[in-house]
Design brief:
With 159 residues, the protein is of the alpha+beta class. Helix content is 19%, strand content 36%. A five-stranded mixed beta sheet has the order 8-7-1-4-9. A hairpin with a 2-residue loop joins β2 and β3. The longest helix is centred in the first third of the chain and has 23 residues. The radius of gyration is 22 Å and the shape is globular.
């Protein structure tokens, strides 16, 4: 009888270990649902913010992104969203966290075009600012790079 109790204990320990290991396994990659087709004559801008960027994140920050001074949507850590625009030139800026620099990125959007930008916390000197410290910046992304990141973030859809 004593031997069977030891076996049960070993079996329970083995099951518990397997359950713990199963909980540590990475979840199956999920393909985000495809974005709806653009309306004819429009252009699409994707805004991404990595979950764990190389420079780190500012805790709890969800800076607002602006297009030509008009609020678009906040950029939350680990998310992406898109916005369809009338073709034209748009100056993209982001809410200041840290030392504001007033810097942004300008995109020229043509009909049917998809462009990508990322919101990142960076030291101000890296973007050519003479202001000390750091802040969020809107930075252009190559389409190929953006396509690699999109499956790793939560797609919030149209904003």
């Amino acid at each position: 009888m004593r031997r069977s109790e030891k076996n049960r204990t070993k079996d329970c320990a083995l099951c518990l270990s397997l359950l713990l290991l199963a909980g540590c396994a990475a979840p199956a990659a999920q393909t985000p649902p495809p974005a709806p087709a653009m309306t004819s004559g429009m252009a699409r801008l994707w805004v991404l913010r990595q979950a764990n960027p190389p420079g780190g994140n500012v805790d709890a920050a969800a800076p607002m992104v602006y297009a030509n001074g008009v609020p678009l949507a906040p950029a939350k850590e680990g998310t992406a969203y898109f916005h369809d625009f009338v073709p034209g030139t748009y100056r993209l800026t982001v809410q200041a966290y840290g030392t504001p620099t007033g810097r942004g990125d300008t995109v020229q959007l043509a009909p049917g075009m998809q462009s990508y930008v990322q919101v990142m916390g960076v030291p101000n000197w890296q973007v050519g600012s003479t202001a000390g410290g750091g802040s969020f910046q809107v930075l252009a992304m190559a389409p190929q790079t953006a396509q690699e990141y999109l499956p790793t973030v939560t797609n919030l859809g149209q904003r």
